[in-house]
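Input record (one chain):
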Amino acid sequence: MSSKVEKLLKAAEIARSERQQLGEVAGIVDSVEELQAIKINEIGEACTAIIYAGIEAETTQGLERFSLNERDLLELFAQRDKVLAGAPAVPYHADGKLCRMFDADEFMAVVKAAEAHIFYNRTLANTYNGWIRRSETWEELQEIYHGVSLPDDLQEHLDNLIATVSGGAQ
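The corresponding structure, as predicted from the sequence alone:
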């Protein structure tokens, strides 16, 4: 895991801990349903941070990093559409590098890696949210955060879905 992702997860963990302490001390969280909503938001924030941190993909220049924030994704998918329409090459750039021409195959490899990264992390968040929704006590919910191991049945569900949809790519 890259240091950028580790820092983002640490920041999400600190925010989670602060919200838990605030809720416990100030009595802000009055019900399991309220805590479920907070936990779902926490998972969503962590998932988004991981997606935005991006991917590393092999290109003709070696292993390059590509951020995947909203602007990056708009541009990535706009260029993907050009390739799908028949463009032999499109302009794009890796993080911190000058824009250059990517041939269609090279660019689609970056797109596929980005799509797999997004799919995996959104599906993982959805699976955590399912766990949150079925949890019925404050104590159960306190133990759920991004990065904690899923219960066996949910991990199996996630693994099967990933394998079916994307051939196991993460």
